[in-house]
Amino acid sequence: MKTAIVTGANRGLGNEVVRQLAAAGMRVILTSRSGDGASAVQGIQGAVLYHQLDVTDVSSIHELIAYVAAEIGTVDVLVNNAGIHYDTYQNTLTADFAIVEEAWQVNTLGPWRLTKALYPHLRKGGGGRVVNVSSASGSFVDSWAGTPAYAVSKAALNMLTVKMSHDLADANILVNAVCPGWVRTRMGGEDATRSVEEGAKSIVWAALLDNDGPTGGFYRDGEPMPW
Length: 227
Ligand code: NDP
Fold this sequence. Notes:
The chain is α/β, with parallel strands linked by helices. The chain is built from 6 helices and 8 strands, in the order βαβαβαβαβαβαββ. Helix content is 38%, strand content 15%.
């Protein structure tokens, strides 16, 4: 049975990605920084396990890696989904650097640290996938979208995706960035145009790519997005 890890999966898109990957027959490790595992996995059918993970906390990452080494072995898919975005409007001149720093820690360094730490346990030689959940806000084409703290952290995540795709190519691990669209979650708000099911599909597409699928790209609904 193939195994996936999903970060920030106690609610929102991450929780739905767990549901869809489990429905596709994978064993899924649902992770969250807070809350109890029992309520996070509640109602999800299939082989779903729970482990605590704060992507900004190095010791928390090490605990997850120790668990994977002892109990799981090889991980086929990593979905770097955890993210933050504060609604408070800021421009580059009014930016609160505590928020800029937090966005960087969660949205950019989180995926970087976790992928680096998990690499020894990721499936090599075909089948390995890393999905970085990004945003159109990180695209240079839509430079008005999102606060600077968020947009800069996601643009950096996009570059990280390309760099990682090079470094993981020898191991045949496909690394892609995905925008789920504007989705009705706590982050996206009630007015967003997409359901979590629709948004999660975009992410799951990149998690379940065939071995000859793309790497180092930025996608929404399986279609390339402008950087
Ligand atoms: P939500 O705010 O609903 O969920 C965000 C999740 O990230 C929560 O589970 C939250 O946990 C978790 N999280 C935050 N910080 C950390 C951390 N340090 N360690 C581990 N988990 C953490 O957002 P969405 O589900 O909408 O967003 C999921 C991803 O999709 C994000 O990367 C976001 O940027 C991206 N995205 C979303 C869009 C949208 O319209 N919704 C549009 C484009 C991209 P907790 O409950 O503890 O806070």
